[in-house]
UniProtKB/TrEMBL annotation:
This is Heparan-alpha-glucosaminide N-acetyltransferase catalytic domain-containing protein. Residues 8-38 are annotated as: Disordered. Residues 72-196 form the Heparan-alpha-glucosaminide N-acetyltransferase catalytic domain. It comes from the Eukaryota. The chain crosses the membrane at residues 73-90, 110-131, 143-162, 182-200, 220-238, 327-350, 357-376, 388-409, 429-449. Keywords: Membrane, Transmembrane, Transmembrane helix. The keyword Membrane applies. InterPro entries: HGSNAT_cat (IPR012429). The lineage of its organism: Eukaryota, Viridiplantae, Streptophyta, Embryophyta, Tracheophyta. It comes from Populus trichocarpa (Western balsam poplar). The keyword Lyase does not apply.
């Protein structure tokens, strides 16, 4: 997968406490840092007692030590680690196994679930992080700072600063910098999700699923607004003809200019969709991703579904830049984050395992069924456009997988088989940077003997 995937860890706002629902021994807390790890702990107050010989100070120290050693909410770490493992798998093996690589356009593959899985778990973590707030202003400031951190890291990793293997140059040409990317999209989803959780929730007590919907009705209203905005722009905007240019090998020659004929409205084809038009207009075509996924379609590659030479009758748009993490598609990505936020609310307000599983599985199943029905009705599942049907299917799948991991790890206690995934989930941002952004290979390639070609990577057969 050419894109990398990424992540968000969240630090709880100081002073947050768990709601008391009459079962304190199962209450959950969150202690996440920026990036993709988290610390979700289970507190057992029934085991806390004071010996008569203990002083107040000793008891306070004992409680502090006990809180520092609290057990993590393992299922979220395992789910995050599984997503990171899938990301690495499709990045490294996607070229060899096209069946798991990103779908060239319409359709769904294993690689296509990675991004929504990350966004989903960002939402779940937000539900645990912002349970109760001593100050909405302070929480807002911290959320903005964390989003900016992810945004800056994303610009560094995917904006063009590192030019890749076999190229020891670095730096960014601001005329061609890529503004959007994986971490940038997650930063946007995290920020909007955090603002909704901080400012758009009621104060009423939650005793049932209906009362929980009433408490967060403004957040669901935001979902309706975002979905309506996306659908109205995708199917309502007129897409005129457009053109792009490709530099030729000889620097003295003028670039080749290609003209794409559109003049349509409401299409979701590769060349004339509103998602690409908005990105070309707002961001500029020179700032978009230059290896478009539709270059692997049969119309654009003789090796489809892999990249390859152009067929003799290839359409003019095959080599045009297209950003899979564009502006309009990110609107629907935010909805995935807000769906995950709802699943985090279920953890906060329902303490019994059977209640959580029920409130997770019902909407997850409904999302998958709705997405498949929409796909059969003509609203195709499409990752590049992040269509509404794609959001439904992938968010529902994320909910089902998360529920299964929760049952396996937190309910049944099968933690040992998932220790590797748990560790990967706790260090997801570090793994993302090292494994998917060429940071480690570029650093290794930077140490050579006499000539740049004599480096460690060349010695072990990488980068030839």
């Amino acid at each position: 997968m050419a894109m990398a995937m990424t992540m968000a860890m969240y630090k709880p706002i100081k002073g947050q406490e768990e709601e008391d629902n009459g079962n304190r021994n199962k209450s959950l807390k969150s202690n996440d840092e920026d990036g993709v790890g988290g610390d979700h702990t289970i507190v057992d107050d029934s085991k806390t007692f004071i010996l008569p010989t203990h002083s107040k100070q000793q008891h306070h120290q004992q409680r502090m030590k006990q809180q520092q050693q609290q057990q993590r909410l393992v299922s979220l770490d395992v789910f995050r680690g599984l997503t990171v493992a899938l990301m690495i798998l499709v990045d490294d093996a996607g070229g060899v196994l096209p069946a798991i690589n990103h779908s060239p356009w319409n359709g769904l593959t294993l690689a296509d679930v990675v991004m929504p899985f990350f966004l989903f778990m960002v939402g779940v973590s937000l539900g645990l992080t912002y349970k109760k707030l001593p100050s909405k202003a302070v929480a807002t400031r911290k959320a903005i700072l964390r989003a900016l951190k992810l945004l800056v890291i994303g610009l560094f990793l995917q904006g063009g600063f590192l030019h890749g293997l076999n190229d020891l140059t670095f730096g960014v040409d601001m005329v061609q910098i890529r503004w959007m990317g994986i971490l940038q999209r997650i930063a946007i989803g995290y920020l909007i999700g955090a603002m909704c959780e901080i400012w758009l929730k009621g104060d009423n007590h939650v005793a049932s699923g209906l009362s929980m919907l009433r408490k967060y009705q403004l957040q669901w209203g935001a979902v309706v607004v975002l979905v309506s905005l996306y659908l109205s722009l995708l199917y309502g905007l007129y897409v005129p003809d457009w053109e792009y240019e490709i530099p030729v090998a000889a620097s003295s020659s003028s670039p080749k200019i290609f003209r794409v004929k559109c003049g349509v409205r409401g299409t979701t084809g590769s060349a004339c969709n509103a998602v690409g038009m908005i990105d070309r207009t707002v961001l500029g075509i020179q700032h978009l991703y230059r290896k478009p996924i539709y270059a692997r379609t049969k119309a654009c590659s003789i090796n489809s579904p892999d990249y390859g030479p152009l067929p003799p009758d290839a359409p003019s748009w095959c080599q045009a830049p297209f950003d899979p993490e564009g502006l309009l598609s990110s609107v629907m990505a935010i909805v995935t984050c807000l769906v995950g936020l709802h699943y985090g609310h279920i953890i906060v307000h329902f303490k019994e395992h059977k209640d959580r599983i029920l409130h997770w599985m019902v909407p997850s199943t409904c999302f998958v069924v709705l997405g498949l029905v929409l796909d059969l009705s003509g609203m195709h599942v499409n990752k590049a456009l992040y269509t509404f049907s794609y959001m439904c299917v992938t968010a529902g799948a994320a909910g089902i997988v998360f529920t299964g991991i929760y049952m396996l790890v937190d309910v049944c206690g099968f933690r040992r088989p998932t220790l590797v995934l748990e560790w990967m989930g706790m260090h997801a941002l570090m793994i993302f940077i090292l494994a998917t952004s060429n940071v480690l290979p570029v650093v290794m390639q930077g140490f050579y003997w006499k000539q740049p070609g004599n480096n460690i990577l060349r010695l072990i057969g990488i980068g030839r």
